[in-house]
Structures are given as C-alpha cells and as structure tokens.
Design brief:
It is a single chain. This protein has helices spanning about 5-30, 40-60, 70-90, 95-130. It is an all-alpha fold. The protein has one domain (about 5-130). The chain is elongated.
C-alpha cells in the first residue's frame, strides 16, 4: 500500500471516528440530562460541534496527517469546541462554564484518544511485520 492510499484510509477512518464520537458525546450528554435520545435529538445537539469539526478539518488540512495528535488533533478539539459554543450561543442554546469544560475534556478524550489508539495499533502492526 502506498503512502497516499494509507493516508487516504487514515483520513477516512479519522473523519468517520470524529463524527461518530461527536455524536456519542451528544448522546451521552442528552442521556445525562434525561433528554430524549432520538437520532434527531442527538443530531440537534451535535450539529454545532460537527460543523466545528468540519471547519477544523478544512482550515487545518487535517486530511493530510489525520492521525497527528499534536497540532492537528489538539487544534481540532479547540476549534470544534469553540465553534460549537459560538453556534450554541447564536442559536440560544446553553453554554454554561461547566458545559464548556465538560465538552472540552470529553471531546479531547474522544478525538485525541482514538488517534492515540490508532497510532499505537499502527506501531504494533509495524513491529509485527518486521
């Protein structure tokens, strides 16, 4: 497999994982606050963060190095949360300080964590192929 096709595979994986984990973040939050857990309810909660993540992917060019934790992953988290919170303010949704902290920590664990796990798996695979 060439570097380009491997990078493309990693970008597809990271993009899907980012979206799924942002949806999971929204679902867990809705569940914790005893809101309905319908698909549309989850999407209604997640869309500002999903849009923030898409913006981060475009601005940072994350598809070029989708598993990079330092810079790409870290700035992805910051931009995702910042844009998500701004959009929540603009749409009249809540942005309490506690929610901002929970969103920042949760999305950092999710978005950086899956990258760290993927990198570990790739390293372990590389060692077993030697």
């Amino acid at each position: 497999m060439t570097s380009y096709s491997s990078n493309k595979t990693h970008a597809i994986y990271a993009g899907i994982a980012d979206a799924v984990l942002i949806l999971l973040f929204a679902a867990l939050g809705r569940s914790a606050h005893e809101h309905s857990e319908t698909f549309f309810g989850i999407v209604a909660t997640a869309w500002p963060f999903l849009l923030g993540a898409v913006l981060a992917w475009v601005v940072l060019g994350i598809w070029k190095k989708p598993l990079r934790i330092w810079s790409n992953g870290l700035f992805l988290v910051v931009i995702t949360v910042a844009v998500g919170m701004v959009l929540r303010v603009l749409t009249g949704a809540g942005t309490a300080v506690a929610f901002i902290i929970v969103a920042l920590v949760s999305l950092a664990v999710f978005l950086l964590g899956h990258r760290a796990i993927a990198l570990l798996i790739l390293r372990l695979r590389g060692r077993s192929n030697r």
